[in-house]
Specification:
It contains 13 helices and 4 strands. By secondary structure, it is mostly helical. The protein folds into 2 domains: 83 residues; 195 residues, Intergrase catalytic core (hpI Integrase, Chain A, Orthogonal Bundle), CATH 1.10.443. α1 runs antiparallel to α2 and α6 runs antiparallel to α8. One of its GO terms (cellular component) is cytoplasm.
């Protein structure tokens, strides 16, 4: 295949002077000079279209050109590279006394949109939540199943899960710890910035929690054992699990369940939000459930209308409406 012919050289005399300066004094590579030439030729064509001499362009013109490139499909990163070349040209022109102000100086490329956080499909999320490792240690199995149900069923952060106590204590609030109220079916957690929130706990998660609490203290001689921490989720030594331990256990469990994607705790939080929004369309409700201070943080998932919080959770979330042992 023949090489692509080089682009025609720019014709503006000041652009030619700048490119020669970049070649001789800045010693830029040939490929870089070619890209600069292409970008400056683009700028010259923009200027011709608005009938303004190249060196008389203002910031408003540059922003208009940026908007045109962005609407034409150019990425924010690509526009940033083009602006960098233009900025260098006008900085050189300023040093030459050709202009009094660099019109590109304060112009920035559009920000790239935040990618949608990775979430499991509904089938995979439910498959993980319902996974039963029959050959495993019943104590570990009950604990890990309850952790998955709370992460996916309540959208908790891993730090919030780690901070849960088995029962409310006088110092829980003071030390930034949460707990689950089994009677009310609510989890009280302390999120970012020590902000407290309450989230509903679905039937499947409640069943998993009760199964875990029935076994939790057994290896230590009972709930009053000095060897047992106040934490809801503890390890073999009775000490509160760390976030890293939960990451490792969840990754292992997702592999055992046959999921092709290694699952981490925040993926289940993303799955919780995505699946709730897919079913309900209530962005404000999901904002409350996730504990986001600003709704723009929640908008990374989608842009949808608002509905009622409790109605959304009870009616829409896959684990809230599945009864343990039911069809």
């Amino acid at each position: 295949m023949a090489d692509t012919p080089p682009p025609p050289p720019p014709t503006d005399p000041q652009v030619l002077r700048y490119l020669e300066h970049a070649r001789v004094e800045k010693r830029l590579a040939a490929r870089t000079l070619t890209l600069y030439a292409l970008d400056l030729d683009k700028l010259a064509r923009f200027a011709a279209a608005v009938q303004v001499p190249l060196l008389q362009l203002g910031s408003a013109h540059i922003r208009r050109f940026v908007a045109q490139m962005h609407s034409g499909g150019r990425s924010g990163r690509g526009i940033a590279l083009i602006l960098s070349g233009w900025r260098g040209f006008f900085a050189w022109a300023g040093r030459q006394g050709l202009i009094s102000h660099n019109p590109v100086q304060d112009v920035r490329a559009p920000r790239a949109p935040k990618p949608l956080p990775k979430a499991l499909g509904v089938d995979d999320a439910v498959r993980l939540a319902e996974y039963d490792h029959s050959g495993a240690d019943p104590w570990l199995e009950a604990r890990d199943a309850a952790m998955v149900e709370l992460l996916y069923g309540c959208g908790l952060r891993v730090g919030e899960l780690v901070g849960l106590d088995a029962a409310p204590h006088a110092d829980s609030r003071r030390q930034g710890r949460g707990w689950v109220d089994l009677e009310a079916g609510e989890a009280h957690v302390f999120g970012k910035g020590s902000k407290r929130r309450s989230v509903p706990v679905g039937a499947a998660a409640m069943a998993a929690l009760r199964a875990w609490l029935a076994l939790r203290a057994a290896p230590f001689g009972g709930d009053a054992s000095p060897r047992l921490d106040a934490a809801l989720f503890v390890g073999r030594r009775g000490v509160r699990l760390t976030a890293q331990s939960i990451w490792l256990r969840l990754r292992q469990r997702s592999q055992q369940a046959g999921l092709t994607t290694p699952v981490h705790p925040h993926m289940l939080r993303h799955s919780f939000a995505s699946h709730l929004l897919q079913s309900s369309g209530d962005l404000r409700a999901v904002q409350e459930l996730l504990g986001h201070a600003n709704i723009t943080t929640t908008q990374v998932y989608t842009r949808l209308d608002f509905q009622h919080l409790a109605k959304v959770y009870d009616a829409a979330h896959p684990r809230a409406r599945r009864k343990p042992g039911g069809e």
